[in-house]
Amino acid sequence: MQYYLLRAEGAGVLWGLKPTPTGARYEWNVTNRSSVPVRIRSVRLVFDMHRFKGAPQVFRNGYQSWSASDVATFGTARDPSFGADNPFFQAAHHADADTVANEYELRSEWVTVIGDDSEHKLLVGFVGSGKHDGTLRLTHGVEGDVELHAEAFLGGVELGPGESFQLDPVVFVNGTDVDGLLAGWADEVGAKAKARVDAPFQVGWCSWYHYFDKVTEHDIRANLARAADFPFEVFQIDDGYQSAIGDWLTTNDKFPSGLNALAHDIAASGYRPGIWLAPFLVAPDSHVARDRPDWIAQFRPGKPLKAWVNPAWGGFMYALDTSNPAVLDHLEALARALKEMGFSYLKLDFTFAPSFDGIWHDPKLTPAQRVRAGFDAIRRGAGDDAFILGCGVPLAHVVGVVDGNRIGPDVAPLWEPAPETEVIAGYLRTQPATKFAQDATRLRAFMHRRFWLNDPDCLMLRTTQTRLSDAQVDEWARTVGESGGMVLVSDDLSLLSGEAAQRLRETIATGRAADDRARRR
C-alpha cells in the first residue's frame, strides 16, 4: 500500500520526514509568520493513496469513551455526521463538530488502520496525548483519487506573531497484523505520555445501572450490607447524590447523612470508597454557576456555553472554563476535599465538555489542552495514590493522568436497541446497549495496560428487571473477563442469585489471568 505526500494545508510547516524500516514518520509544526495574532482551527498533511486492491477497509476509532468504533468500507459507509448535521451533538463525539465535507469521507480519531483485499495493512496515527486532537480522514480528492488527510485539530488556538506550535508526529507503519500494528503504536504513545498502567486489577460495585439518578442513601446502605457476599474491593456512589450538577460536596434530601459519613462507613466495611462526578459541567441553578458566572465558558459574549443536555438534570448544562486558573484551583480543591473525606476512587464523567467551541479565558489552549488541564488539576488535588477513572472523555487527551478509562458506550439491560429508537440520526451506536459495549471492548482491547486499565463497563448479572437473555449475560461476562479490564457490578445485590455470584467469580478469575498476561508482555 503506497502513499505520497501531496501538500500541507493551512499554516503548517513540514520540517522533517524520517523513513523507518516499516514506513515513515512526519515531524511538523505550525507557525504564525504574520505580524498579527492569528487563530488556527486545523492544519493538514494530505497524502495520495495508491494501489488499493478492492474497496479500502478503515478502522474508525471513536473520539471519546462512548463514540462508536468500527471497521467501515470506504465508498459504502458514511460518517455519522453526514446524516445528523447536528453540531451540538457532534461536538461530543468528534474533535471537529462540523459535518464532514462530503458523503464519502470517513474519519477516525487519533489512529486508523487501512486495509484492502490484500494482506497488507497501513497504520496511520498521531504519537501524542493531551496536546491537540488528530483526525485521520479518508476522502476523494479533486481528481477522484483516494486521499488521506492527517489533520491536527487545534480548535481556533491563538498564535502570536512568530509563535510556533509543535504538533504531534504522524507515523505510517506497514504490516500484516492489525493487532500488532495497534499494539506497537500504543506502546510508543503510552511510553511517550508516561501512561499510568500500574494500578492493581479493579473489582467493584457501583450504583448506576439499577438505580440510576433515583438512588437513595438507603439503597447505598442496603447494598453495602450485602456486599460481603461478593469479592468487591471498590464501592462507588454514582449520579444522584449531589444537590446539583456542579455542587459535588453537598447532597440532596435523599442522602441525609452526607458524603463524609458514607465514605467513613464504606471504608469501615472494608472497601475503597468511590464517588462519581461530572466535574467540568455546572447546572444553571447550581451554587457554582450562580456565585461564579465568570467561571463559565461563553458561547457568545454574555451567553454561557451549553455543553450537554440531560432532562434528568433539568435541561442544558454549562461548561466550566478549564483554561481559567481560578477554575483549575476550584477543581483541585474539590478533588482534595473528596479525598480528605475518604473518596480515593474518582469517576470523572462527561469530561468532553471543555472541548466544545466557544469563548475561553485563555485562547492559547487547544481543546485537548483544556480537557487535560482539568484532569491535571483533579490529579493534583486527589494525589498520586488516588485512582482516577475517565468516562465520556476524549481518549487522546488523558494518557498519563488517568488510571482507568471507559472505552465504550454504556451497557444497558438490553442487548441492542431497535433502529427506530435512534435518537440522533447516524448515532445509534452511541446509545446505551450491551452489544455496543462488547464491540468497543474488542476493538479497543489494545489500549489496556498500554494507556490505562480498560473499563469495559459493568457486568449485567441480574435475571429480573432486564431484557438480556441468560446467554447474553454470559457472553458479555465472558467478553469482560477475556479483556482483562476492570470488573464492576451495578445490580441491586438483592436480585443476584448464587449462580450470578458464581458467574462473577469466574469472570474475575478469567480477568485476572488476562490482566496478568497484559502486565507481563
Explain what the structure shows:
By secondary structure, the protein is of the alpha+beta class. 26% of the residues lie in helices and 29% in strands. It has helices at 80-84, 87-93, 178-192, 208-211, 217-226, 258-268, 287-291, 325-341, 367-382, 434-443, 470-483, 498-520; strands at residues 2-9, 12-20, 23-31, 38-50, 57-60, 70-73, 106-109, 111-115, 121-126, 133-140, 146-159, 164-166, 170-175, 203-206, 234-237, 242-244, 247-251, 272-277, 281-282, 298-300, 303-304, 306-310, 315-319, 345-348, 387-390, 404-406, 453-455, 487-489. The strands form 6 sheets. Strands 2, 3, 5, 6, 8, 9, 12 and 13 form an 8-stranded antiparallel β-sheet that branches. The radius of gyration is 23 Å and the shape is globular. The two termini are 29 Å apart. The mean pLDDT is 96.
Global shape? globular
Question: What is the count of β-strands?
Answer: 28
Total helices: the number is: 12
Q: Which structural class best describes the helix and strand composition?
A: alpha+beta
Alpha-carbon distance between the two ends: 29 Å
What summary fits the major beta sheet? Answer: 8 strands, antiparallel
Helix content: 25-40%
Proportion in β-strands: 25-35%
Radius of gyration: 23 Å
Q: What do the pLDDT scores average to?
A: 96
Uncertain residue ranges: none
Spell out the key features of this protein:
521 residues, eight-stranded parallel sheet, 12 helices, alpha+beta, single chain, eight-stranded antiparallel sheet
